[in-house]
Amino acid sequence: MRIEHLADHVAAAPTLARWILDEWGYLLPGCTLEDIVAMYEKRTVRGRIPETFVALEGDTVVGAASIIEEDMETHKELSPWLAEVYVASEFRNRGLGSALVRTIIQEAKDLGVRRLYLFTPDKVAFYQHLGWQVLERTEYYEKNVTIMSYEVD
What we know:
153 residues, alpha+beta, Aminopeptidase, three-stranded antiparallel β-sheet, 27% helix
């Protein structure tokens, strides 16, 4: 498996958009599949936030992760964010999610970012294992979530 910039795999945008809607659609009221595809299609510039990286098995996209400016309407003061970390179910538990997170951390470092943020309803232990720290527990879109941060070296 390999991880590459979405700019080299823009045709993967519909797959990524479907994953986003299926997994986190409740966070995007009124957003259509076409809206999300268009969002991904704009992420073709390297070295500038927002960026998305895709994990590939052969020519098949099997996962993705992004660095974005803002991810929670209630915490606009925090930026940038690790977001949209997703691995297709049949490829989970192989270290791919960790590799995607490390790719975003390295990209953040390359961009001069000092601290990254994320929020998760259920993957706190996964992120803590990767060095993320709990910042706050809160409710967001009627779900209990944990906001976490990572100090980029």
